[in-house]
Amino acid sequence: MLRKINSFTQKPSIAQITSYIMIPLDIVVFYSCVIPNLSDSLTMIVLASVFGAITLALVISTLVCSIHDPTDSIVNEYREVRRLKYVL
Fold it and tell me: Residue 70 above 70 pLDDT?
């Protein structure tokens, strides 16, 4: 049986670690610095809603891309055969 290889089963790269830090930081800065400085309440609600929707789409697409296995099944079979060959 082949083990699913994705971004959560391997050591995270520098880009992944950076994105894990930058996305929450971006959210905190926007909601703590930008939104309170707006004077019009309608603008504040619209911007908060749009930013929230875009951030949610970004997080969901990041999770989907991280969970997805980009490796071809033939490559997986080859790796498994090589692994078994060297173990035995």
Answer: no
Q: What mean pLDDT do residues 15-19 have?
A: 81
CA dist list (Å): 50 to 5, 32, 60, 74: 34, 16, 15, 42
Q: What 8-state DSSP symbol labels residue 2?
A: P
Read off the amino acid at residue 23: I
> Tens of pLDDT along 60-69?
888 887 777 6
- Structure-token pair, residue 81: 């055969």
Residues 6+ apart with CB under 8 A from 8: 66, 67
Phi, psi dihedral angles at 6 (to 5 degrees) = -150, -175
Q: Is 57 exposed, middle or buried (0-12, 13-18, 19+ CB in 10 A)?
A: exposed
